[in-house]
Amino acid sequence: MSQIIKATSSNWKDLMKSEVPVVVEFYTPTCPFCRQLTPILDKLSREYAGRLKFAMVDASMESELALGYGIMGVPTIKFFCAGRPIGEMVGLRSEGELRASLEDILKRYRRCVSESSPLYA
User: Which sequence spans correspond to the domains of the chain?
Assistant: First the structure.
């Protein structure tokens, strides 16, 4: 079963309060590359359950949220620590590339958490 949260402006602050890193894909339903990426993220969300939180934002429905994070094209994946963006990938990526980025985020997250306070208290 998918572990991916459908993120919206109404649940965004709660999502950003996560105690684990958050991986967010900004997508649109008509984007062919987004549709190719979704099954990969779905698989990874199950594998990394408990260590990472995964979410998807429909940039066509949540344009203010997308524009607020500088999303200029989809798919865009952003990585968050304590509510702050700490990394980004733009465009379709392979499972291997995503997995390497997730492992890197997990390594950097410990330092990020210890050196910053949460953005949303």
Answer: 4-109
pLDDT for residue 56? 98
The Cα–Cα gap between 121 and 118 comes to 6
Residue 16 contacts residue 120 (beta carbons within 8 Å): yes
Contact 45, 3 (CB under 8 A): yes
CATH number of 4-109: 3.40.30.10
What does the alpha-carbon distance between residue 42 and residue 19 come to, in Å, rounded to a whole number? 20
Residue 75, preceding bond cis, omega within 30 degrees? yes
pLDDT of amino acid 72:
95
pLDDT (0 to 100) of residue 109:
77
Stretches where the chain sits below pLDDT 50 are none
